[in-house]
Prior knowledge:
There is one protein chain. By secondary structure, this protein is of the alpha/beta class. It has one domain (9-222): Vaccinia Virus protein VP39 (Rossmann fold), CATH 3.40.50.150. It has seven helices and ten strands. The longest helix has 10 residues, at 164-173. The radius of gyration is 17 Å and the shape is globular. 40% of the residues are buried. The model has no long low-confidence stretch (mean pLDDT 92).
Amino acid sequence: MTTPPLLSDEELERSAVVANNTMNRERGLTGVNSYARELGFDPVTHLSAQSASPSWLDLCSGEGRALREAATRLPASAVLTGIDLVGPPSPPPAMPGVDLITTSVGDWAAPRAYDLITCVHGLHYVGDRLGLLTRAASWLTPEGLLFAHLDPVSIRWPDGTSAGRTVLAALRAAGFTYSSRQHLLTLRGPRSVHLPFRYLGADPDAGPNYTGQPAIASFYQRLL
Length: 224
C-alpha cells in the first residue's frame, strides 16, 4: 500500500472532515439518538450511584446537549465538562456546573479527576487518538469509568496496513477492555499508560468508517 500525505493535528483540525463533522453535534442524553443508546447505559443513573457530587467529562461533546440535560437531573454540585473543537454554534445559557470548552482535545488537560469520561464517536476525528486515550486514563477517579468508541481499522502502520490488532493487544495489556460488537473501549480507574507507538500524522481522506460517516485514519510507528 502507498502511504497518503499525512497531516499534523493542527492541519487536520482545519480539514472539512474534522472541523465540520456532524457526528455528535445534537446527540441527547437518552432516546433514539442518545448517549444512553450508544453506551448501553444512562450516564446519569451511573453517576448518581457513584457520588453525591458526581463529575463527567465528555470529550468531543458537540453542542453539549447531553451534559446540559444531565445537569437537570444531577445535584447542583455536579461537575459537567464538555470539550469540543467546534462547540455550540452560539453560547448557550449558563447552567450551574456545566462548562462547555471550545478547544482541541489535543491541547487540553483535565484540571481534576472525573467519575465518568466519555468520547462518543469522537476518536474518529482525533489524529493522535492513542495519545488522547493515554492522557484520559490518568484523569479518572479511583472508581471512575472511561468509555470511548474506537475503530481499530483506522489505525495504521506507516505503509498503510492495519495496526488495529497490535494496538488493541497493547491497550488490553494496559488495562482497557474492548467490545468489537459495540466498537467500545472501556477502562476503570486511573493509571499511567505507556503505549509502544509513535504518532506520525493522519489522513483526512480515508473515507467512511463503520458508522458510514467520513472519518480519518491515524498512522503510528511501532517503538522497539
